[in-house]
């Protein structure tokens, strides 16, 4: 059974930092790309960052220069380091896994975590 478990969310002031973790089990992790999505109240789920099975990365324009995605295959874990957080970053953050290359849309992903809340106060 495949499981993705996010952790590291919380409440932080604007300008602060958080590091999210996504721990995977039940799959050959190195063969999967992982994306971090977020969903704010009343909005759709958007891809903010992704890392492919080969290590290439993607960032949405809104987080470039502030967020960094990385993976440690030996730990079956992907991280999202979030710096210079803004109130508009407030959302539930989900990690998702997709075979081989990452996709831009949520429907392209095979497995999902339960989400972790990130709240940035002004």
Q: Main beta sheet: strand number and arrangement?
A: 7 strands, mixed
Give the overall shape.
Answer: globular
Helicity range of the residues? under 10%
The tally of helices reads 0
Q: If you average the pLDDT, what whole number results?
A: 96
Rg of Cα set: 13 Å
Roughly what fraction of the amino acids lie in strands? over 45%
* SSE string: EEEEEEEEEEE
Number of strands: 11
Class inferred from helices and paired strands: mainly beta
> How would you describe the oligomerization state of the chains in this entry?
single chain
What is the distance, rounded to the nearest whole angstrom, between the alpha carbons of the first and last residues?
40 Å
Poorly predicted regions = none
Descriptive account of the structure:
- The protein has strands at residues 3-7, 10-13, 18-25, 32-39, 45-51, 57-59, 67-72, 77-82, 91-99, 111-112, 116-121.
- It has 122 residues and is mainly beta.
- The strands form two sheets. Strands 2, 4, 5, 6, 9, 10 and 11 form a seven-stranded mixed sheet that branches.
- Strand 5 and strand 6 form a beta hairpin.
- The termini are far apart.
- The model has no long low-confidence stretch (mean pLDDT 96).
Question: Key features?
Answer:
122 residues, 4-stranded antiparallel β-sheet
Briefly summarize what is shown.
This protein is mostly beta strands and 122 residues long.
